[in-house]
Design goal:
By secondary structure, the chain is mainly β. It has 3 domains: 97 residues, Immunoglobulin-like, CATH 2.60.40; 151 residues, no CATH class; 113 residues, no CATH class. Helix content is 11%, strand content 45%. It is built from 4 helices and 31 strands. The strands form 8 sheets. Strands 3-2-5-6 form a 4-stranded antiparallel beta sheet, with no helix packed on it. A 4-stranded antiparallel beta sheet has the order 8-31-30-29, with no helix packed on it. Strand 25 and strand 26 form a beta hairpin. The protein starts with a helix and ends with a strand.
């Protein structure tokens, strides 16, 4: 197991081009000069190269430089562009202030009612996927008349288009553990980077190789990466963290489904659960009886939380792997519960998904006692395709049960 973890670690370090070219990492924080607040999702690019990164929810970034001096190009849709020069390796954290653009899009109060609002109304687009890129929404969309030559569209939370670019391939969005947004196509994966009014596709990589290399890394916090590893036919789930400063990894938590592990033991000793006569029977047994443990690790501000559905508890850790507290939970014992957890990165609230006959319900889970403290039903929208919760708003894709209908983007205030 340790050898496999070492391989995963090496693959992540090798694949993450942001951290692959030198021995030292510069770190910094971007903040608003007007109110001193950190700015998340700021684009930072090494001038003259395709290497770059973005700031996390605390305005912090990590970046390796090949040579000195190097110039960093800093851009954000709401702030003036900045160019800084790094003359030597910085031993302490850089502090970089940005000024707001005069023509910054003003925030509009959208919380006047709790009606479901269609964000792509009057846009004749058929949506394939959506995600958040900073404070904006990024879409893959097709012209309603033909399923070819999709667009990537950037818009604000009110549905106003900020950017639109035609591309030649379909795909799905993927957020890596650094918070970067990627486009995964059938053959290749690309990191998306908005540079002023231009969309760039960085770090072309084979999609299968990308998933194999980067998907074990699920979160980052304070210069540490959190890595997920399954073993014993997915009945043991181990979490490790990798320290980027010295490339050491530490076992953080091991969760075991003892019932599933015993079934694996019996199975491997000739006691199959079903009468296996073919490869199809073996696949059926694997699918029905050896599902991977679902106990997701999430970041909530500067705390790492594990929703441990095996031991019926939520565990809270600091970045030194010290268990701070744990609370009992039982909401997942409801037979309408689905294995999906949402963390609102703005409000830091936790939600989970429940579906009954195609009807979707979102429930907020208390971080104090693990109980359900709020329930939001999404009426008249059966079998919603994708959900993201951000800043107290549920965003989701939905196509009415009609082949002539378009997949559209909606939002609902919680």
């Amino acid at each position: 197991m340790r050898n496999k973890l070492l391989l995963i670690t090496l693959l992540i370090l090798a694949f993450s081009k942001t951290f692959s070219q030198s021995n030292e990492i510069i770190t910094g924080i971007l903040f608003d000069l007007e109110n001193k607040r950190p700015i998340k999702n700021v684009n930072i690019k090494i001038l003259g190269t395709s290497k770059g990164t973005i700031t996390d929810s605390r305005g912090v970034f990590y970046l390796q430089l090949d040579t000195y001096p190097s110039k960093l190009e800093i851009t954000h849709i709401a702030f003036n562009d900045t160019l800084i020069t790094i003359n030597k390796q910085e031993k302490s954290k850089l502090e970089i202030g940005l000024t707001q653009k005069i023509n910054k899009i003003t925030e509009i109060n959208i919380f006047a009612n709790k009606k479901i609002e269609e964000l792509t109304k009057n846009k004749l687009l058929d949506l394939s996927d959506f995600d958040f890129y900073g404070d904006s929404i990024i879409l893959i969309a097709y012209d309603w008349t033909k399923k070819q030559n999709p667009w990537i569209i950037l818009m604000n939370e009110n549905g106003d288009t900020l950017f639109k670019s035609n591309i030649n391939f379909d795909g799905k969005f993927y957020k890596d553990c650094f918070g970067n947004t990627h486009l995964l196509t059938e053959k290749f994966a690309y990191q998306l980077y908005f540079n002023k009014n231009k969309l760039e596709f960085l770090y072309e990589e084979n999609t299968e190789k990308f998933i194999e290399n980067i998907s074990p890394c699920i979160q980052s916090l304070n210069n540490k990466l959190y890595i997920k590893q399954y073993s014993y036919r997915n009945q043991i789930l181990s979490y490790y963290n990798l320290n980027l400063a010295d490339s050491t990894n530490t076992e953080m938590r091991v969760i075991t489904d003892w019932i599933g592990a015993r079934m694996v033991y019996d199975n491997e000793n000739g006691h199959s659960i079903v009468n296996i006569k073919s490869d199809a029977d073996a696949r059926f047994e694997e699918m029905c009886f050896f599902d991977p443990i679902y106990s997701p690790l999430v970041k909530i501000n500067d705390t790492i939380s594990i929703l441990n559905f095996i031991d019926n508890q939520i565990e809270f850790y600091n970045d030194k792997n010290i268990l701070l507290s744990k609370i009992a939970i039982d909401f997942h014992k409801n037979n309408k519960w689905k294995e999906q957890i949402f963390v609102d990165e703005v409000t830091s609230k936790i939600y989970s998904l429940f579906i009954n006959n195609g009807n979707t319900t979102i429930k907020e889970i208390s971080k104090k006692n693990g109980s359900v403290i709020r329930t939001v039903k999404i009426p008249n929208f059966n079998w919603i395709e994708k959900i993201i919760i951000r800043n107290g708003i549920i965003f989701f894709l939905y196509r009415k049960n009609n082949n002539l209908e378009l997949t559209r983007l909606y939002k609902l205030e919680i």
